[in-house]
Amino acid sequence: MMHDKGLVIVLSGFSGAGKGTIMKHLLEAHPNDYNLSISATTRDMRAGEKDGREYFFKTREEFDSMIENHELLEYATFNGNSYGTPKAYVEKLIEEKRMLSLK
Description:
This protein is an alpha/beta fold and 103 residues long.
């Protein structure tokens, strides 16, 4: 079946259930068809990470503004840092007819 747009697939499960392993194999088998969602976060960037690759790194003020402007599909705070899924990023991939996995 052909789609006019991409699909959003939500893969959920408890920590250690194998979500990452499933996504690794799916991305290896279909590198041009699937993307992982990139979350926005307020946590500090770690060595070797790049903004826009592992996360979209935001200040607390930028993240709060995204919440106020309804720019996140969902968000949560964990261990003092906030994480959320940017709506514009997801919409861009859907328009490009990509399938996106939120995990």
